[in-house]
Amino acid sequence: MATEGYEKLVKDLKKLRLGCIAEMLDSYAKQAVSSNMTYLDFLELLVTEEVRYKELRGVENRIRGSRFPVIKSLNDFDYSHNGSMNKRKLEEISNLRFIDNKENVMFLGPPGVGKTHLAVGLGVKACETGYKVLFTTLNDMVCVLMSSMADNSLTSKLRMYVLPSLLIIDEVGYLPVSKEGANFLFQVVSKRYETGSIILTSNKSFSEWGEVLGDNVIASAILDRLLHHSTVFNIKGDSYRLREKRKELVKEEKKEDN
Ligand code: ADP
Ligand code: MG
């Protein structure tokens, strides 16, 4: 092919957003000639590469857009640390059918037992599968919605929390929430009720939510909607962080003794 024709082809491929094919065209064309490929096999090779590239980029974009504070994988979760963790129940949740069924997942337990790890692990898996996910702490969500009142962007900000297939609300209970904050949580939960999944983590038992949200009536209205279609994990045990730290300290002590 003449240089001019080749350059136009590359330009057109880019116009059609087939950047991967444009990039690989030269080397793949040489490969096709040397291995005597049919036209259809050559086309299939190029299209497969473009699809793989787009899928990979889609996953990366979705993970970036989800605003995870850290990336965690369900595969790295150590069940032996935590006798109370029901592995089979978690494996069932990991198939992500709860997202299609618009159901919720709640991780309850004291600090350091892996609630955020599991929520992010499920979120990352959801991104890899093609779902749109958004991660927030309750406090951040309340701050965003509260400040949206000032510039009249409440409707669009609410949409941001309502539209994703999966919304992760982390750290319910660490900080007390104002009455307006509890109202915002109610709005988000009721707009997502039976229309989109929520994963929520909390260090407080449900009976303490009235205190956390400063209002027993709103707390029970929120819980009513959250729990109607939900799977609850009550994680007990020691903090993983502290256990790891303790192990390090014991190692250091042993080194010093030797
Ligand atoms: P929580 O949200 O319950 O306070 P995190 O999920 O933030 O706890 O866990 C604290 C740290 O310990 C994180 O780095 C997390 O990856 C790790 N961790 C907690 N539990 C486990 C576990 N069972 N297996 C592996 N890592 C864990
Ligand atoms: Mg946490």
Number of continuous helical runs: 12
Strand residues, percent: 5-15%
Low-confidence stretches: none
Main sheet overview: 5 strands, parallel
Bound molecules: adenosine-5'-diphosphate, magnesium ion
Strand order of the largest sheet: 2-3-4-1-5
Percent range of helical residues:
55-70%
Protein structure class: alpha/beta
Task: Please give the alpha-carbon distance between the first and last residues.
Answer: 73 Å
Mean pLDDT score: 92
Describe this protein's structure.
Strands 2-3-4-1-5 form a five-stranded parallel sheet, with helices on both faces. Helix 7 packs antiparallel against helix 8. It is built from twelve helices and five strands. Helices cover about 60% and strands about 10% of the residues. The mean pLDDT is about 90. It folds into two domains: about 60 residues, no CATH class; about 170 residues, Rossmann fold (3-Layer(aba) Sandwich). The longest helix is centred in the N-terminal third of the chain and has 28 residues. The chain is globular, with a radius of gyration of 24 Å. The N and C termini lie far apart (about 75 Å). It is of the alpha/beta class and about 260 residues long. It binds adenosine-5'-diphosphate and magnesium ion (MG). The site of magnesium ion (MG) has 5 residues, from helix 6 and strand 3.
Walk me through the topology:
Layout: H1 3-15, H2 19-34, H3 39-66, H4 87-94, H5 97-100, E1 104-108, H6 115-129, E2 133-137, H7 138-148, H8 154-162, E3 166-172, H9 179-192, E4 197-202, H10 209-213, H11 216-228, E5 230-234, H12 240-257
Parallel strand pairs: 1-4, 1-5, 2-3, 3-4
Helix pairs in contact: 1-2, 2-3, 3-6, 7-8, 7-9, 9-11
